[in-house]
């Protein structure tokens, strides 16, 4: 999330392997021969399992996405993997990161139906104290595919890393782009309370009428939603966990009941959990077995 730093290991066989090997080189759990696996956890490469209305794949996004049928998804909600505020001597060049993300976005675009959309949540790339907003690199990829950016939502949160030589980062962005001009957007589903509910026009032809929409106001493009820290009620053992409130807004406004939502970097399964609760179908892809097990139990309603 905020202030991401991308690391690398030399002499990997390809860009995707190089990037993900570096990304997960910080002590995350590995599969050890002979270790007992959760009976609910799908083995990598053995096909998905279904938990409620969720289809959960264990594997790399670059390998799984090409196996899914074109035009089968209505919305993609994700946050691509990057590390959080850690310093390493070697880091993945920004050009490698962009090439990796461009590969994934291209597959996601193929999977979207004609009325589909993407909501791509990103933070910053930080190198030697210089901050580069990743959304400024993602938007040209969307446009090169013919997609239209409808909003750049600022997700504001109150807690994060503390910086000593610049202002501490307290926001990230969500780029919402659509495949065509005919897309789903249900504003009423995400309206928030008016600042002055019941306020009425005091003069003119509409005197006495409510001055605001009785269903609430447009939430705007700056969302003040707490991130998931150690004391958050939703907190699981995942370093970059989505708050459900954030996903609620995206799913409610950008899909209809029974639509299909894809998260190619599913982590702890927040997108799937929200979709199960809101009556949407979901497809989750996650590389790390630790998080696949976590998401499986979460989606099944078990303690995690």
Automatic annotation (TrEMBL):
<keyword id="KW-0680">Restriction system</keyword>
<comment type="similarity">
    <text>Belongs to the N(4)/N(6)-methyltransferase family. N(4) subfamily.</text>
</comment>
<dbReference type="GO" id="GO:0009307">
    <property type="term" value="P:DNA restriction-modification system"/>
</dbReference>
<dbReference type="GO" id="GO:0032259">
    <property type="term" value="P:methylation"/>
</dbReference>
<keyword id="KW-0489">Methyltransferase</keyword>
<feature type="domain" description="DNA methylase N-4/N-6">
    <location>
        <begin position="73"/>
        <end position="296"/>
    </location>
</feature>
<dbReference type="InterPro" id="IPR001091">
    <property type="entry name" value="RM_Methyltransferase"/>
</dbReference>
<feature type="region of interest" description="Disordered">
    <location>
        <begin position="202"/>
        <end position="221"/>
    </location>
</feature>
<dbReference type="GO" id="GO:0015667">
    <property type="term" value="F:site-specific DNA-methyltransferase (cytosine-N4-specific) activity"/>
</dbReference>
<dbReference type="InterPro" id="IPR029063">
    <property type="entry name" value="SAM-dependent_MTases_sf"/>
</dbReference>
<dbReference type="GO" id="GO:0009007">
    <property type="term" value="F:site-specific DNA-methyltransferase (adenine-specific) activity"/>
</dbReference>
<dbReference type="Pfam" id="PF01555">
    <property type="entry name" value="N6_N4_Mtase"/>
</dbReference>
<keyword id="KW-0238">DNA-binding</keyword>
<dbReference type="InterPro" id="IPR017985">
    <property type="entry name" value="MeTrfase_CN4_CS"/>
</dbReference>
<dbReference type="InterPro" id="IPR002941">
    <property type="entry name" value="DNA_methylase_N4/N6"/>
</dbReference>
<keyword id="KW-0808">Transferase</keyword>
<keyword id="KW-0949">S-adenosyl-L-methionine</keyword>
<dbReference type="GO" id="GO:0008170">
    <property type="term" value="F:N-methyltransferase activity"/>
</dbReference>
<protein>
    <recommendedName>
        <fullName>Methyltransferase</fullName>
        <ecNumber>2.1.1.-</ecNumber>
    </recommendedName>
</protein>
<dbReference type="GO" id="GO:0003677">
    <property type="term" value="F:DNA binding"/>
</dbReference>
């Amino acid at each position: 999330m905020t202030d991401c730093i991308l690391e690398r290991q030399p002499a990997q066989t390809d860009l995707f392997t190089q990037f993900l090997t570096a990304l997960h080189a910080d002590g995350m759990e590995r599969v050890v021969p002979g270790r007992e696996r959760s009976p609910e956890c799908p083995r990598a490469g053995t096909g998905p399992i279904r938990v409620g209305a969720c289809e959960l794949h264990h594997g790399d996004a670059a390998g799984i996405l090409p196996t899914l049928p074109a035009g089968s998804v209505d919305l993609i909600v994700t946050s691509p993997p990057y590390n959080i505020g850690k310093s390493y001597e070697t880091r993945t060049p920004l050009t490698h990161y962009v090439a990796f993300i461009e590969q994934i976005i291209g597959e996601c675009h193929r999977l979207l139906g004609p009325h589909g959309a993407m909501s791509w949540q990103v933070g910053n790339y930080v190198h030697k104290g210089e901050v580069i907003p990743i959304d400024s690199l993602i938007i040209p990829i969307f446009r090169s595919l013919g997609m239209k950016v409808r909003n750049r939502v600022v997700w504001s949160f109150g807690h994060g890393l503390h910086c000593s030589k610049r202002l501490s980062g307290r926001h990230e962005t969500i780029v919402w782009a659509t495949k065509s001009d005919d897309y789903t957007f249900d504003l009423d589903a995400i309206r928030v309370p008016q600042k002055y509910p019941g306020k009425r026009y005091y003069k003119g032809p509409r005197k006495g009428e409510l001055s605001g929409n009785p269903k609430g106001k447009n939430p705007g493009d700056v969302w003040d939603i707490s991130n998931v820290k150690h004391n958050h009620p939703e907190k699981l053992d995942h370093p970059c966990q989505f708050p459900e409130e954030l996903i609620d807004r995206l799913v409610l406004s950008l899909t209809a009941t029974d639509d299909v939502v894809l998260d190619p970097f599913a982590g702890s399964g927040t997108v799937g959990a929200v979709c199960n609760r809101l009556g949407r179908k979901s497809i989750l892809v996650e590389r790390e077995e630790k998080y696949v097990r976590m998401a499986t139990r979460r989606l099944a309603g078990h303690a995690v």
